[in-house]
Amino acid sequence: MAIHLTMTADQLGRSRFAISPAQEVVSTVRLRDAHPARHARTWYARARALMPAGELALLEALVPADHDYAPDFLTPPPARPVATIEEQARIIARTSADDIERQLDIGLHGRPVREDVVALFGDEDTYLRWRRPAPDALERVIAEGPEAVAVAAAKALQLFFELAIEPDWSRTTAVLGDDVRRKSDLLASRGAVAMLNDLGRGMVWDGSGIVLDRPYDVTVDWADDGVLMIPTSTHVGPVQFTVKCPEQPAVVYRSNGIGRLWQRDVQVPNRALADLLGDTRAVLLTELGEHQSTKELSSRLPWSAPTVSYHLQVLLRAGLVGRTRRGNRVVYRRTPVGDSLLEA
């Protein structure tokens, strides 16, 4: 069983990337202080220390740690390449009452049963066993009406971001931006299959569209503009899929390079060079005044060996570094062209 996003290669080519601060909040709240990423645990600890208890409790009630469903209205699709938390909070606060009611119905005990959701589970008993009780913090807001749920959720999510994540947001967007560029390069140089494989497990291209492993069958046949791909620094597990006809389907995946968010800072040597090449490649080019291997570079810099290797290959293809073998080691060094660019 799986989700099938039927589309042509041309439709896939119309896909776009976007960065969502709301998604970072939701993925952080889901795993709380058990999150495997150190920076996400730091964000959660900040929120717990600084947020009013009631607002954090509401977010935790909407995004449970012990259940796999959280309402989609908490993560509206970004309209721009990098959304702002203010934009997304406004969209959340304006979510229609019908949408709020439907999404609460899907996951909570005691609410109306949605037949289309029952169909996904095969039978009503299985679906009812899957639903969860509504925590008190959520019940109190639900009693005020669906519009109150939307407004309170938007306020709590924005506050979490501003208190916990915003101090690190510029570094986070730099990491996510590097990942988007890497995926775009993969798409251009090796094709859609290589790019999709790089998003994470559980997602493949079968020639007629994208297939995502799931315990139920769904066919999405309206992805005329491809998919919206959202990298995050906090997502854990297989790629996450959200869909609402006729909106563009979205997949959420874990970005490469998130270790940079808790490893030591690297001083970018030349801002103009970094603007041209990107921070990672500018640092690597600067470091390669003498022969060094991928392992040697990654041991001193806050990037994994695969990340260093990827960026070295880009510099190699551009003729800015050269590669040679010394015994069992493959080493890299700036070329005269790279020296000239660095000096310029």
TrEMBL record:
CDD domains with a match to the protein in the record: HTH_ARSR
Annotated ranges, domain HTH arsR-type: 271-343
InterPro entries for this protein: ArsR-like_HTH (IPR011991), HTH_ArsR_DNA-bd_dom (IPR001845), Metal_resp_trans_reg (IPR051011), WH-like_DNA-bd_sf (IPR036388), WH_DNA-bd_sf (IPR036390)
Top-level taxon of the source organism: Bacteria
Gene3D superfamilies on file: Winged helix-like DNA-binding domain superfamily/Winged helix DNA-binding domain (1.10.10.10)
Keywords: DNA-binding, Transcription, Transcription regulation
DNA-binding as UniProt keyword: yes
Gene Ontology molecular-function annotations: DNA binding; DNA-binding transcription factor activity
Record bears the keyword DNA-binding: yes
One Pfam entry name: HTH_20
PANTHER family to which the protein is assigned, alphabetical: ARSENICAL RESISTANCE OPERON REPRESSOR ARSR-RELATED, HTH-TYPE TRANSCRIPTIONAL REPRESSOR CZRA
Protein name: Helix-turn-helix protein
Organism: Kribbella antiqua
Source species taxonomy: Bacteria, Bacillati, Actinomycetota, Actinomycetes, Propionibacteriales
